[in-house]
Amino acid sequence: MTIGLNVAKPRNPQPRPLPSKEEVLEFIGSRSGTVGRREIARAFSVAPGDRAALTALLRELDDDGAVERRRKKLHRAGHLPATVLADVNARDADGELIAEPTEWDEEAHGPPPKIRVPVPRRARPGEAAGVGDRVLLRVEETGAEDDGIRHSGRVIKVIDRAKHRIIGVYRSLADGGARLVPVDKKALGRELTIVPGATGGARDGDLIAAEVSRPPGYGPPQARVKERLGSLKSERAVSLIAIHAHGLPHEFSRAAIAEADEARAATLAGREDWRKLPLVTIDPADAKDHDDAVHAAPDPDSNNPAGHVVTVAIADVGYYVRPGMALDREALERGNSVYFPDRVVPMLPERISTDLGSLRPQVDRPAMAVRMVIGADGRKRSHTFHRVMMRSAARLSYPQVQDAIDGRADAETAPLVDPVLKPLYAAYGAIKRARDERAPLDLDLPERKLLLKSDGTVDRVIIPPRLDSHRLIEEFMILANVAAAETLERARVPLIYRVHDAPSLDKLVALRKFLASLNIPLSKSQQLKPADFNRILARVKGTDVEALVNEVVLRSQAQAEYSAENYGHFGLNLRRYAHFTSPIRRYADLVVHRGLIRALKLGDGALPERTEVKELAEVAARISAAERRAMAAERETVDRLIAHFLSEKIGATFSGRIGGVVRAGLFVKLDETGADGFVPVGTLGNDYFAYNEAAHALVGQATGETYRLGDRVTVKLVEAIPVAGALRFEILSDGRYEPSLRKQRRAGRGRNDSRQGRNRFRRRR
Fold first, then answer.
1. FRET label pair with 694: which of 356, 473, 628, 641, CA 20 to 30 Å apart?
2. Does domain 83-160 have CATH number 1.10.1740?
3. What is the distance between the alpha carbons of residues 601 and 651, in angstroms, rounded to a whole number?
4. What is each CA distance from 95 to 90, 130, 474, in whole angstroms?
5. 165-233 — its CATH code?
6. For residue range 328-355, what is the model confidence (pLDDT) as tens digits?
7. If DSSP states are collapsed to H, E and C, what string results for 310-340?
8. In this structure, are residues 690 and 748 in contact, taking their beta carbons and an 8 Å threshold?
């Protein structure tokens, strides 16, 4: 099966002159989906030396408004791409939904086209959309009908539900009434009255789901309790808020549970017996599932002197979760496991995720393994995939392994140091040399971890040390992921890639202006590589602006996602990359496992032969959306836990850095906890502060006093709202004096925005 666009390509294409603009537009228009420069170059056999000229031609088409860009892909201006984000805003006379694209340039192309979305008789979970929802659609042009609608769409995923349903906390009032306090930061200050008699049996402090309605006349909106979701007094209430606020599937169907309970351990039939190979798992000390194991040894082949043989074995989840099963449908709906400080919402039931699919020590477990031959220079020379039965020799933690290598072995690791751990580190030493030569993006952004008390509240916040044991596992997993992508491409089996686009032109221009304000040049080339960013990061390392530059470079990057079409992974500086190493917690990995089983004829659980790239594109879109949903839920839960932790420290002072600058004020990240809080612009002082977007700063127009992204500041905690994860600070530090920025100011509302800032954080009563 051909991967990507079905563009005919001769075996030995001869380079030809650049196509005309008309030819390019005709080609783009003839495709059912969006295309990129690589596909255009391949279709017209553009010589490598003419690629820069082709880029310039496409930029001219973009500037002329003839094409539109979405990441690195193009489609004809005024035409809908094959996959589009849309808002459902009506129903027709037959009850079918009518949607419009969320993003559309009306000035250039007129009113947005309408898309008819037939309501399926049997919708899979998450696919039943309604008026007011934001959805991801697969779109086809059907030709004009009587009502002028030319497009038909099918729901891939409901991205955001209509706002008539709201999550909040039920608060009883002294007069016998009740109010709903929203949990969404954006809704702070907008409490709703609960309609009398519509309390649903809720009690003070309960987390509730309510329906918003407007009474007759001109009264304010009211709420009717539809569901009691739990009590905020419970130990795991904070993550409960995120689960319901984001609609995370957290209960498995009876069919899925039954399939998991009926699953039986895999046998040796059809597998290679690797149970004597001393593979070990290396994970965080508190990990509950263990889906990857590693082994390394010197390569005995005399043709590979000082080389290594590295083995990565991954739990064979595909043996238990087959296409079409209830387990598979629910795993796709979840997309990934979601990790909160106090619980995990798994992609698969515990019978699979923590038992049959977990590589427990001294227990036979099925695995998909890749054996990779590494040269002394760290480059992968060859690899082979195998379906095996393994037996983990030990379950180790990152600090435990590092201590053993550093001469502090314990009773468990002491027997493993020479035969197992030292060969792993020797192979890692070689792989690291190749990694340094490849020069992936090397941002220094420490991650904080919350340690909880038994009651589910925060005990303290730590920054775990970054160890070589972490890096070792990361590099081994990256190698295995690349090997999986290469194998599936060679076998012409469709797959889901993990892709990361290069920074957009707009973001590069903004970054270049910002760095210029620090007298740091950035190449004007349109083909920047991660190494270009690394040179900037190395230049500022150890300086006062190190944290600032790391943060701004991070914000200039695109977001990684899943895609059935490959456009590389910019951050890792890899041409092809796929997720293979965590099928317990990521659906993309499960799809890749199925592809390998099919490509190599390894038995049951293969990707169905009828699977097409278009179908995997829809899966990729769904799980990318699920990943973003999970990240938002995890982030908000941490915010709420820390806000609760700090709520007893009102009036205390803290040191931190400015982590965000907007017209309405400053976001400050505290050093000790990593908590983010807001400083309204109206509280900064007596000057008029204008927003300077290029400098990421608020600048006093009379004095030149400046508060800039990355500046160190001291703040006082004024307010904490745990249920929303919101903190409000008062800044105690003086800004720096930068009169030159006053001359560069852009029109902004400055002090006039302060009312908005104050309203967002109005004290709760």
1. 628
2. no
3. 66
4. 9, 11, 51
5. 2.40.50
6. 999 999 999 999 998 999 999 999 999 9
7. EEEEEECHHHCCCCCCHHHHHHHHHCECEEC
8. yes
As its CATH architecture, domain 650-760 has Beta Barrel (2.40)
Tokens coding 238: 């904070």
Name the DSSP class of 572: T
Instruction: Say how many CA atoms lie within 13 Å of 139 toward its Cβ.
Output: 26
Nearest CA to 21 out of 73, 69, 56, 47 is that of 56
Look-up of token digits 């500046």:
711
Q: What is the C-alpha separation between 105 and 282, in angstroms, rounded?
A: 51
Interhelix angle 326-334/613-646, rounded to 10 degrees, is 60
> Measured between alpha carbons, how far is 380 from 478 in angstroms, rounded to an integer?
11
> What's the pLDDT tens digit per position in 537-579?
999 998 878 888 888 899 889 889 999 999 999 999 999 999 9
Q: What is the pLDDT of residues 440-458, one digit of tens each?
A: 999 887 788 899 888 888 8
pLDDT computed for residue 35 by the predictor = 67
- Torsion of the alpha carbons at 486, 488, 489 and 491, rounded to the nearest 10: 120
- As a whole number of Å, the CA-based R_g of the chain is 28
Strand, coil or helix: what is 94? coil
CA distance 157 to 125: 9
Closest to 616 in 3D by CA, of 33, 3, 139, 125: 3
- With tokens 């957009």, the residue in question is 504
Torsion, Cα of 179, 185, 186, 187 (10° steps): 0
- C-alpha–C-alpha distance, residues 616 and 614, integer Å: 5
pLDDT value at position 26?
65
Domain with CATH 2.40.50.140 in the chain: 650-760
| Cβ atoms of 357 and 370 closer than 8 Å | no
Fold category of 21-76 in CATH: Arc Repressor Mutant, subunit A (1.10.10)
Give me the pLDDT at residue 391, please: 97
% pLDDT > 90, the chain? 48
Query: Residues 232-252: what's their mean pLDDT?
Result: 84
